[in-house]
Design brief:
This protein has 279 residues and is mostly helical. It is built from twelve helices and two strands. It is globular.
Length: 279
Amino acid sequence: MSSSSEADDLAVVLGLKSDPLNNVALGLQERVRHRRFMVQLHNKILVKTEQEQDRVWSKFCALYLPGTVDRLLDLPVPADAETPIELEDFIVFNPWHETLVQLQHIPYLAKYLRSHSPIAAPGKQLLQVLADRLAGVSASWEAKMAAVPRNQQLQDHYIAAAGSAIQLLCTLCTHFVHETNRNSVISNETQQRLLPILSVWSHRYNRQFLGIVSRRMLAYISRAPGWEQAFNSVRSSTKNWGVCGLPLCSVRKDLRVCAKCQTVRYVRPSFFFFLLNAS
């Protein structure tokens, strides 16, 4: 199956595209949608090599990233949620959020966030909204993580969900690292709401993924020494500016941006063929 068709199939499940054979996906109940999304993600995409996955996500971003952000900012009400806890979790743990988690390293996201096009305008509020949502569920999630007696499966779920949410926040923050007014990225009120729980998780899960990303987010909020260098490094990698897009090419400087997609850079073709002939 091609990366294009897999991107389209995922868009159908997410309600971003109608299925010419079966239009039911646009009206899926949210619990059903989430199950179908996870099946599609794990059975069709995550089984691929990283390079193959990137092709799928790049194609998806090119066609459906603005729609994904729009849907994430204006979440549907999961009428089929069976408990208040399930309804609360849906605010952060939903298919559109998980989609951004999976594609956060794709250069199209950086391009979208930097764009001044009207279609990309919702991206400017994305970071604040996601930070508010995480702050809103953090106390409830913390209670489940620290509950005694332990429910290992449930606790692992919330630890992983919190780690993914904070990692996405960190990635989004890298694209606003040069913003002088920090409160315009995440309000001071939201930052203060996040600080206590980030501190708890960074210590308790010190050497685990959740602890690592919590410390990273703490460094951003508190402007800890070295935070800017670390975030700039991530920002550079997500822009994909330091790697040539041509196969077998290891050149990492004097690259020219692709005039079509604006997300990939290439060495001059004549120089690339010179390298091939010289090897």
